[in-house]
Amino acid sequence: MFGEIPGSPPGTRFVNRRAAFDAGVHRTTQAGIAGTFEGSESICLSDGYSDDDIQGDLITYTGFGGRDPKTGRHVADQKLVQGNAGLVRDHELRLPVRVLAKESVLTGNKKGTSYIYLGLFLVTQWSWGERDGFKVLQFQLQADPLDSYTPAEISKALVRGEDLPPLRRTSLTNRRVRNAAVAETVKSLYKNTCQICRTQLRTAAGTYAEAAHVRPLGIPHDGPDILENLLCLCPNCHKAFDGHAVTVDESGKVYEFERYKSDLLIHQQHHLDMGYLAYHRDISKGKSK
């Protein structure tokens, strides 16, 4: 079941994971992700992954699998299966994800053993990384401004022993605000022609293309919103590029699932930074640090 659970609004506190399971908020008592290939309905932030990160209303969440339960070190690659694949599906379809968090994760106090339901989040990015020499999946989730508390809001209330404030109705985000002017510049250079497939999509309102960031904005990638980090792509190629099906090598050759597809169209006034393309290749193949 996706979305809110009747009787368990954002801010609901559970004595343990079993109580959250019984309420239907996170329908597994062990796994961090509750989901299938069709989509993941919830995740749980516990003390498991040091790579998980919280900044404002953004959460960087590491996928499941590949770790030795005794040492916590990775001993195998993670795979796009079950809940991991479900979170990718959530990203594609913009399905809401319930987020449950252990009190100790929010406050840093290991004595906190209860779990707090934060609300609904959306998967805004996903990529491959590398830990202990093995591939891991990383997901960025952002709080829905109308249906969730940020981790910071919950943490502040817990530390002070206060009641939660009324659920906010405006977005409190630390995401970079995109520069519309630089996006229009890259599209103008190519006359809305896709740099990968050379398609110039025509609509009743004129030609259309999208500006795609090579190194993604926001945590954990922190890419810059500059012309050197942008491509002009059609919607299909944009989706494939962001979905890590398409990469570009240092010579400008485009590969789809590691098979040569085309040469990247590069305008003489577009000084594309090949370092950002290398970064994109790394997060598409699991080599980022």
UniProtKB/TrEMBL annotation:
Q: Where is the signal peptide?
A: none
SUPFAM superfamilies with a match to the protein in the record: PUA domain-like
Q: Which GO terms describe its molecular function?
A: endonuclease activity; ubiquitin protein ligase activity
Domain YDG: where? 3-143
Tell me the GO BP annotations in alphabetical order. Answer: negative regulation of gene expression via chromosomal CpG island methylation; protein ubiquitination
Q: Which Pfam families match?
A: HNH_2 (PF13391), SAD_SRA (PF02182)
Q: Which PROSITE patterns match?
A: YDG (PS51015)
The superkingdom listed in its UniProt entry is: Bacteria
Question: Which key words tag this protein in UniProt?
Answer: Endonuclease, Hydrolase, Nuclease
Question: Has keyword Transmembrane?
Answer: no
Key word Nuclease present: yes
PANTHER family cross-referenced by the UniProt entry: E3 UBIQUITIN-PROTEIN LIGASE UHRF-RELATED, OS04G0289800 PROTEIN
Q: What is the recorded name of this protein?
A: HNH endonuclease
Species of the source = Arthrobacter jiangjiafuii
Q: What does the record give as the organism's lineage? A: Bacteria, Bacillati, Actinomycetota, Actinomycetes, Micrococcales
